[in-house]
Design brief:
The complex is a heterotrimer. Chain B is an alpha/beta fold. Chain B is built from nine helices and 17 strands. The chains are: A alpha/beta, B alpha/beta, C alpha+beta. Chains in contact: A-B, A-C, B-C.
């Protein structure tokens, strides 16, 4: 008997999207179509691999989002080999409107209704960049959690995760059921092949309205007052001086001014 | 605005010292406390209370509450979060942490436990109508959002180096109140082993945060050695121009440009690359571009944010030295 | 750069386009020039194309196919051609020609015998109709097959055949009843290793160099009865049926090629600065891009229409010919404008637009020239 895996997948804009402010002043790329959050692909790949190896019996996708935006990540995940999907439909809400607390509450509520041993998701969604939901779900359900995992071994009743943290490799042992968030080194996600894409459309997708899942309207913990674009590039700043002197000035500017270190 | 929400700064002790990002968060918390009139509590989490008290005292903290997290609990958020939540208490407040890998793990769980918002990776805080407003990057820094807290309090992590590091004022040790001790016993998540990394694994070019890239100006295949050294200092990936790849100086897998890889790191350091349009196509969306080239009229300088006119062979080793010093924790 | 799509595109089509595009960018783009110089697709890439399900898209799973419809096949070929028209040509030919004839007109036993190998990329297939003296006049075949005990003796030469130099099997049309013209033609599957079957010369071509083109030569080659596809005498009619579907593939290839050339032009127009600003800000460039986009859009709609007609009636007919005619002609125009937008750089091999242009020219010729398409369209209009 293998385990049941739930993969949390999210629709995000592709990383190459050209972000601008829309008519309502919100950051958006009106031409870019949502895709599966790239880190979630590592989670789906890991789940499908575990199922193929026999360690897992089933891989279910769980997505919180609008039905339209979520179509693609769900289709993609199913084509990669997941067995079925649950969509928590957020209706007409703007993609970033629902905050992490409400998203986690919805996910936890769904997880209470289905059997699972392992929850996998990407280490961060590339739109909000917050990495907020997995920790909240772990707290809500009292599950052990390993974040930013680049190696995962699943054995009966437990999983061993390797993660890179603060310049070291930490080996974390989790008692199942547990949550792990995937980093890019975990595996190499497959591109679904054509027969799999054709089969995906026949797999079941269970759609549940957000309000029904939460038993009411979501409670916001935060409010976005405004979005803005980062200041544009000015002219090049030439750093003069002898090599040692120029190097020192440059590194200082990168740290204090450009803040890229 | 009624009463300002009290502030709690949680400092993290790592390898025996309070993190630089924690000290930066401390200074930011103090400024926020001044601007809003809110009281500020300082908590520290780590293995050595005396050392934390001394270091925080030297930064002007009079009293520090200490949560011990040593041995099996030191790197385990499952062990730390409940103790920290207990120590902080359930009042409506704003908890600030300097960002680190441990803080990224601890903070959202703490927010769930305390029942407020989580503000991740803030890069600026201003006070509007007596309440803090956080600025944080979204879409990988291509946009920013300004966020206010609703209802209950919040936990916020502050991006490392986004806030200035305060100088030590030479004060004496802070008074310590030990509030609790996290233990690694009876947990469902156990940190079994911590391996310090030796040498850097190959970093993927397209996903790297930092890329050091070399062109014809490096002078030959051996010219990539100092660049590789710089990569290992920065945890960066190594890139190359088409010309250098065609010259056979470096493998094709490193090529950035129209016919190579398209990259968009936070920092792109172009060494001895003239910046042919072919190359620009692959890297122009990088957030910060640094160019080092002997030719001041090289097109790469049009694209760059910072430039040094000089010989890669002389400048790059100096850069490696300076970055190493700057990144020392 | 997201996949081009219509608002009506299904999620399935989007996933498909993205998946094929990722495949093309990862497995093919880095070696586009290498494939061109190699003058063929290596067996290992054929296997990857097979694993991806790209070699037998419209056939049922029982034969190793992906079970797709013509519209999705066209979308896949388009995404491949956007990156590498040469590889897309090999894929389009593999899907439509030999596999098409075996699937449509072969016995169940023949389908199970040959199609899974073609679908997986383990076996490469050619399709032989054209001869040195039979191009557009395609049924004046000089190749002859004569009755022998248990089979046929085949003699002749096929020219301009895709995958000729390394194919493992070929569906070959030959005269079995010289007096009957088109109705005297029979289709044979000739397999590598059969005595008297060999590859002839390989052509040096203007473009589409990643896809090999050459001669197949038959000298007293014995082909057993089990290798006859369809009834003797029906090969000519069957070949026309195969070409009817093949046009959709070539038209989709043309749309993808044009899209790739336009993608490159848009990227370049944003980067290239002259007179102090990106050339994308000049109307001269803007108008070119607008025309390219409009032509591509129209061609794509025509391909979708032809695919829908093929799907519902089994024959793309004049819709297929119109799509093939228009898409191939605009692909040449768009690729040429792409070079113009790139200026002097466009003429160099540092950029791929010169290759798109060279590749495009084949599309107004292969699988029925523009003139043949016009004949089919005119015949329908004037009937």
């Amino acid at each position: 008997m293998g385990i049941n895996i739930v993969c949390l997948v999210k629709a995000t804009l592709p990383t190459e999207a050209k972000i601008a402010l829309d008519a309502k002043g919100r950051a958006a790329d009106e031409r870019a179509k949502p895709i599966i959050n790239p880190y979630d692909e590592f989670a789906v790949e890991e789940a499908v691999k575990l199922r193929e190896s026999g360690a897992a019996d089933k891989a279910t996708l769980l997505c919180v989002g609008s039905a339209k935006a979520a179509l693609e990540p769900i289709q993609r995940g199913l084509a990669m080999g997941a067995d079925d999907a649950i969509l928590v439909d957020t209706g007409d809400r703007h993609p970033l409107e629902l905050d992490g607390a409400a998203t986690a509450a919805a996910i936890a509520a769904v997880l209470k209704t289905i059997p699972f041993d392992l929850v996998l998701c990407g280490r961060v969604a590339v739109d909000t960049g917050a990495a907020e939901v997995p920790g909240r779900v772990a707290e809500l359900l009292g599950l052990p959690l390993a974040q930013v995992v680049n190696k995962l071994d699943v054995a009966p009743g437990r999983a061993t995760a390797h993660r890179e943290a603060d310049g070291r490799t930490e080996v974390v042992e989790l008692a199942l059921p547990a949550i792990a968030t995937a980093d890019k080194g975990l595996n190499k996600p497959r591109y679904p092949n054509l027969p799999s894409i054709m089969k995906a459309k026949k797999k079941p997708v269970d759609t549940r309205p957000l309000e029904a899942v939460l038993g009411g309207a979501p409670q916001a913990t935060r409010r976005v007052v405004a979005n803005e674009l980062p200041p544009g590039k000015g002219p090049v700043r030439m750093v003069a001086g002898a090599p040692a002197e120029a190097a020192r000035a440059l590194v200082g500017a990168l740290r204090d001014e450009a803040k890229v270190l | 605005m009624s009463q300002p929400r009290p502030l709690v700064l949680v400092a993290e002790q790592f390898d025996g010292a309070i993190r630089k990002s924690s000290l930066q968060a401390l200074a930011a918390a103090r400024r926020l406390a001044q601007a809003t009139g809110a009281p500020l509590r300082v908590l520290a989490i780590g293995a050595d209370a005396a050392s934390a008290a001394a270091q925080l005292g030297a930064h002007g903290v009079a009293s520090v509450e200490f949560v011990r997290a040593a041995d099996g609990a030191a790197r385990n958020a499952s062990a730390i979060v409940p103790e920290l939540a207990k120590a902080i208490g359930a009042a409506e407040q704003i908890v600030l942490l300097g960002m680190s890998d441990l803080a990224a793990d601890v903070a959202p769980r703490l927010a769930a436990r305390l029942g407020g918002a989580y503000i991740a990776d803030a890069t600026a805080i201003e006070v509007v109508d007596g309440a803090p407003r956080f600025r944080r990057p979204i879409y990988a820094g291509k946009a920013l959002e300004q966020v206010e807290i609703l209802g209950k309090g919040a936990v916020a992590t502050l991006r490392a180096n986004a806030f200035p590091t305060p100088d030590s004022n030479g004060g004496g040790a802070a008074q310590v109140v030990e509030l609790g001790s996290a233990t690694g016993d009876g947990l469902k998540a156990v940190v079994k082993d911590i391996v310090k990394k030796s040498g850097l694994d190959a970093v993927s070019l397209t996903e790297a945060d930092i890329i050091v890239s070399g062109g014809i100006g490096v002078g030959g295949p051996e010219g990539y050695e100092p660049l590789k050294k710089l990569c290992s200092v920065l945890g960066a990936a190594l890139g190359a121009s088409r010309a250098a790849v065609h010259a056979g100086w470096i493998e094709e897998s490193h090529q950035v440009g129209q016919t190579g890889k398209t990259v968009s790191p936070n920092l792109y350091i172009a060494c001895g690359i003239s910046g042919a349009i072919q190359h620009q196509a692959g890297m122009r969306t990088s957030r910060c571009i640094v160019a080092v080239n002997t030719d001041p009229s090289a097109p790469i300088f049009q694209l760059a944010h910072y430039g040094i006119v000089g010989d890669v062979k002389q400048v790059v080793p100096e850069l490696a030295r300076e970055f190493e010093a700057a990144l020392r924790p | 750069m997201t996949a081009p799509e219509l608002e009506t595109s299904s999620a399935e089509e989007r996933t498909l386009r993205e998946s094929v595009r990722e495949f093309a960018l990862e497995e093919i783009l880095p070696r586009v020039r290498e494939l061109e110089h190699a003058k063929r697709l290596p067996p290992e890439l054929f296997r990857k194309l097979g694993e991806m399900g790209l070699l037998a898209m419209i056939y049922p799973e029982a034969y190793g196919g992906a079970g797709m419809d013509y519209r999705l096949m066209a979308a896949s070929i388009e995404e491949l051609a956007r990156v590498c028209p040469g590889a897309a040509l090999s894929v389009a030919a593999t899907n439509s020609l030999a596999a098409g004839q075996i699937f449509l007109f072969g016995t169940e036993e023949q389908r199970l015998r040959w199609m899974p190998g073609i679908a997986s990329g383990a076996k490469t297939a050619s399709w032989g109709l054209t001869e040195p003296d039979a191009g557009s006049d395609s049924f004046r075949l000089a190749s002859r097959a004569e009755r022998a005990p248990g089979g046929w003796i085949l003699n002749g030469r096929k020219s301009l055949i895709t995958h000729a130099s390394f194919c493992d099997l070929a569906v070959v049309m030959a005269m079995t009843d010289a007096g009957s013209g088109r109705d005297g033609i029979t289709a044979f599957v000739v397999e590598r290793g059969m005595k008297g079957f060999e590859s002839g010369k390989t052509e040096e071509k203007l473009g589409m160099c990643a896809s090999d083109t050459g001669d197949l030569v038959f000298r007293d080659c014995f082909v057993p009865d089990a290798n006859v596809v369809g009834a003797p005498g029906m090969g000519g009619r069957h070949a026309l049926g195969v070409l009817d579907g093949g046009r959709i593939g070539i038209a989709a290839l043309a749309v993808g090629l044009a899209q790739g050339a336009m993608d490159a032009s848009i990227a370049y127009a944003h980067q290239r600065e002259q007179f102090g600003r990106p050339i994308a800000q000049f109307q001269a460039i803007q108008f070119k891009i607008a025309d390219m986009a409009t032509k591509i859009h129209a061609a794509r709609l025509m391909v979708e229409r032809a695919a829908a007609v093929k799907e519902s009636t089994g024959k793309s007919g004049h819709d297929g010919s119109m799509a093939k005619l228009f898409a191939s002609e605009i692909s040449v125009q768009v690729a040429e404008e792409a070079i113009q937008i790139h200026g002097g750089y466009g003429y160099t091999k540092d950029f791929l637009v010169e290759k798109y242009w060279r590749d495009s020219k084949l599309l107004t010729i292969g699988e029925g020239t523009s003139e043949v398409q016009r004949l089919i369209i005119a015949k329908h209009m004037l009937a």
